[in-house]
Write a structure and sequence with these properties.
27 helices, alpha/beta, globular, 6-stranded parallel beta sheet, 7-stranded parallel beta sheet
Length: about 650
């Protein structure tokens, strides 16, 4: 590299300092780890992309880079930015084999090295709902009683325990105290769940990181991975768990070649075992220390919005980084703090405001209504429907949660992994005349080592013989011909849709959903890769096809920005949630409000209703008057126009 690349000239002084910190042409690997402490709207992604591109320009090998972001989509967008920067300076773009989420990188490495720690390379990934189904099935077998925690709550407990790297007893004590009396039953359920996964060759979402960490405790595998991965870039570092930190630190104990980007003021995933201490304690975790560059110029929001959000976060914890953002943008309209009578009045205000902004040229899709939990938006959804205002709701993955889509996924996974009794049972119960007991009796007749022959010899009820015969022929032909996985998926789709033609009330809708799911597989090289990728990626948001108002939980809106933002129900019991009891949990709630407000570019409205209906997140009675959130103190209010 004879001269500095042109993209450095497009960065401000702090961003440029972060990019070149500790590296130079011919010396691409930082000796000390680097923390880029980046406030919202400060050009975080642009800076990280430039960091990666500059590392390559200085001689870094893309095959030796692990680049982890929060979702597959954000990781893909980051690599696209890097490739664009590289094309502008060198006319070419390289591949980054270890770029994605932590879980997708773990998946790739476990497929390659998993047998070294006792895993089969053809394991199947359990989706969240499948994990709950398996736990529920085992609960039924153990007869743990009606008062025992629901399977979904058990999944949450086991997930938090593993990612926080604490015991089951400690998990119950700190996060799920009301279930402490069921500790022995939970321990028994966990043991049986582990055994079932091992027998059926299944891994759940959390197993991926757990076994990634196990790989790094295997001497020869760790040596190989440390040789392969010389540069580590982690985005959204404030949202990492103790387990993820253990993985990163194991790959580079002294922090050489490590760059992390994040903002402790946006750490809002404690319920998933993310810990803000990873970023707040970063500099003290290395014997030789670490470097830190802070980005505080906000390019997103108006100056008035930046001033308002600064005051909201200023009192959040003594050990926070204490960044105070500033902006060169226009002053803009005052953020509004709006008092309304109840959630019906709140909905009316949102609808009237959205229509006014639309007339001013702000499209619905550039307006977002944010809330703490989905329960708080029920009244608004009803009123939007009556007012015929189009909207799309973020949070959750409704397509993958539909029963018929889950049935089809089970069919594909059983085709890929015949050891999976969970998936086989779901498929068999779709056949005429085969119920739960019949499905349980069918499974032992199938030999996973000789699937085709054992399928042909399997005895099924008379009513199911025709459908079973067509499925057997399809599978035998697919395995014998070695056809492309996309063709096999299409064939299985046709068979699946013929199963309940007569009984289905919405065959056209089901077919459309299945087709939509199949098209998600474009770009994957195999069915196994597709199924794993689609199930391990965290919740994604979808853009409306037309012009529609965005309704979103604050957690789902993180990483996005909108011209106009309205935050609902900023009252005690909602923000902060009435479930936040410890000082740490309350502080995280303050960061949740901050994240919601900092999504706004020009218009920001914060609504304080006096009452909320019973189905909202805040339990109230008809006479109880709610109070404004403690996070909007008298200093903060001076930054708003109060209405």
């Amino acid at each position: 590299m004879t001269k500095s690349p042109s993209y450095l000239d497009e960065l401000n002084e702090e961003q440029k300092a972060a990019v070149v910190c500790g590296i130079s042409p011919g010396k691409p690997r930082r000796k000390l780890p680097l923390l880029i402490d980046a406030g919202p709207g400060s050009g975080k992604t642009r800076t990280l992309a430039a960091c990666i591109a500059y590392t390559v320009d200085c001689g870094g090998d893309t095959d030796q880079m692990m680049i982890c972001s929060f979702t597959r989509k954000t990781a893909s967008e980051l690599i696209q930015r890097v490739s664009k920067l590289r094309r502008e300076t060198h006319g070419g773009a390289e591949a980054f084999p270890y770029a994605g989420t932590f879980h997708s990188v773990a998946l790739k490495l476990l497929r390659r090295f998993g047998e070294e720690i006792g895993l089969r390379s053809d394991f199947t990934i359990l989706g969240r709902n499948d994990q709950v189904d398996l736990l529920a099935s085992i609960q039924g077998q153990l007869k743990l009683g009606r008062a025992f925690p629901r399977a979904r709550d058990c999944a949450d407990i086991f997930s938090f325990r593993r990612n926080a790297r604490i015991s089951l007893a400690a998990t119950l004590e700190t996060r799920h105290r009301k279930y402490h009396r069921f500790r022995r039953g939970l321990a028994k359920l966990l043991a049986r769940y582990k055994a079932a996964k091992k027998k059926q060759n299944l891994l759940d979402y959390d197993d991926l990181l757990f076994h990634f960490a196990r790989l790094l405790r295997h001497p020869s595998v760790r040596a190989e991975l440390c040789k392969r991965i010389k540069f580590i870039f982690v985005d959204e570092f404030q949202d990492t768990s103790r387990l993820q930190w253990q993985i990163v630190k194991s790959l580079t104990p002294r922090g050489r070649g490590m760059t992390v980007v994040g903002d402790d003021a946006q750490a809002i995933y404690g319920f998933r075992a993310a810990t803000v201490s990873n970023i707040r304690g970063f500099e003290g975790r290395f014997k030789r220390g670490a470097r830190k560059v802070t980005l505080v110029q906000n390019y997103r929001s108006t100056r008035r919005i930046v001033a308002a959000t600064n005051t909201v976060i200023e009192s959040a914890g003594d050990d926070r980084s204490g960044k105070k953002l500033w902006s060169k943008n226009e002053r803009g309209p005052w953020p509004r703090l709006v008092a309304v009578r109840d959630d019906t009045a709140q909905a009316k205000y949102v609808i009237e405001g959205a229509k006014k902004l639309l007339k001013k040229g702000v499209a619905f899709k550039d307006q977002a209504v944010l809330f703490r939990t989905s329960r708080e938006v029920a009244v608004l959804e009803d009123q939007l429907a009556k007012a015929r205002v189009p909207y799309v709701k973020w949070g959750g993955r409704p397509l993958l949660e539909k029963s018929h889509v889950r049935d089809f996924i089970a069919l594909l996974r059983w085709f890929e992994n015949p050891r999976s009794q969970l998936d086989a049972s779901r498929v068999f119960q779709k056949l005429p005349g085969v119920g739960r007991a019949g499905a349980k009796a069918l499974f032992p007749q199938i030999d996973p080592l000789n699937v085709s022959r054992s399928l042909q010899a399997t005895q099924v009820p008379q009513a199911a013989k025709a459908d079973w015969g067509s499925l057997v022929r399809l599978i035998v032909e697919a395995k014998r011909a070695g056809r492309s996985w996309q063709k096999t998926v299409r064939s299985l789709r046709r068979w699946f849709l013929t199963l309940d033609v007569a009984a289905s009330k919405d065959l056209i809708g089901k077919a459309a959903d299945i087709e939509r799911f199949v098209t998600l597989g474009e770009g994957y090289s195999s069915c196994g890769e597709f199924l794993s990728g689609i199930l391990i990626d965290p919740t994604e948001t979808e853009q409306p096809e037309g012009d529609a108002l965005i309704l979103s939980t604050i957690h789902s809106a993180k990483g996005h920005e909108f011209k106009a933002v309205t935050v609902l129900s900023v009252v005690e019991g909602s923000i902060p949630s009435n479930k936040a009891l410890s000082p740490e949990e309350v502080e995280e709630e303050q960061r949740v409000l901050y994240v919601g407000m900092t999504r706004a570019k020009k218009f920001l409205h914060v609504i304080v209703p006096q009452r909320l209906s019973r189905h909202s997140n805040t339990p109230t009675n008809a006479c109880q008057v709610l109070t404004r959130s403690r996070f909007l103190d008298h200093r903060s209010i001076r930054r708003f126009r109060v209405i």
